[in-house]
Amino acid sequence: MPQVAGLRGAIAKPGEETKRDPTRAMYRYHQVFAGPGRSLTRKSLFCAVQLTPYSEGAIRPHEQSSPAGRDAALAKIKASGTHTEPVLFGYRDPANEIERLCRKAESGTPIIDFKTPDGVAHKLWRVGEADTVGAIRRYFAPKKLHLLDGHDRYEAMMAYREELTAKAAPPTYSSANFGLAVLTSLDDPTLATAPRHRMLKTAIKRDEAFAALGKLFIVDKLDGAAKDVGKQVAALTDTVAHQPAFVAVFASETDAYKLTLSPDVSPIAEGVQIARALQKLDPVVVQMAVDKAFPKAESSTTIDANAALAQLGKGADVVLVTRPLSVEQIAHVDELGGMMPAGSTAFHPPIAALVTMVIDPDEDLV
Prior knowledge:
The chain has 366 residues and is of the alpha+beta class. It has 2 domains: 4-192 and 349-358, no CATH class; 196-323, no CATH class. 25% of the residues lie in helices and 29% in strands. It is built from 9 helices and 21 strands. Strands 1, 4, 5, 6, 8, 9, 10, 11 and 12 form a 9-stranded mixed beta sheet that branches. The protein has a 6-stranded antiparallel beta sheet with strand order 15-17-16-19-14-18, with helices on both faces. A 4-stranded antiparallel beta sheet has the order 3-2-21-7. Strand 16 and strand 17 (256-261) form a beta hairpin.
């Protein structure tokens, strides 16, 4: 099971000089952001998590990593000897035990309190009492952690650990064996998922793409909706038999097209390698469509549909507007041992870079 520990974090607002904490601690983290008609507060915990291979089952991924993303993350870690971007993990806590344990720390003045340009307020409290840190560690000892966001970063942390420990294994609780993490409850209703819209660079035109998809999809033309995200999203909410669907927008066209998987089509029968219970999740079907219709396309993603559409004709030839998976769908993927395509999921709002973890094989975290 995963080991959770405090760390001697280097703390600062983004853009400011960091100051390293003189002793080990965890850090309670609040993000306050706008929700439907009211303000929402998501509560998480910055800490160190023991790095373990997926095969051991303590860390559960749900999507493949991107080799380019993993290599870039590893290069960044090696250049600084630190973890500056945490991995987001989810855990089950229906009794809100972690909230209870952090309540005393939250009653004081936060050590960081500011807003990012997107209007999200970020607050950080130090959790340094040995009894509280020990209770948190014991609480997580039997838990499995769901890797929600940062698959590339987690695998880069693992690769860096392997490099550091290749000649001699450090003590169990050496910081070399741990990664910077943010833990949040899967039972928290403020854990908001976001879609990842695809931007494709390809020479393939609409008629050729639709011909390649053959009878796999029902195609509905959305007149004049090429730049109307609201109309595109509304179309996706009204889908035949709750089937997987996405909207395709092509450069230099004024119309958009909703593609809905035909109810009688099985992605597994079309060559998709995934558990049968997961074959009709939107990201899986979107990747199948890309592989069939745009096999050599350069692909990138963003959670902002308007930003994606703005790239049409400026580096993107096709944009695929998608729907987000729910938290329960994501958890179901890793519970079944499934792996969706890289860049399938995202969470909003993003975590601010408030805590940096120095990696020193000679420094123990416990």
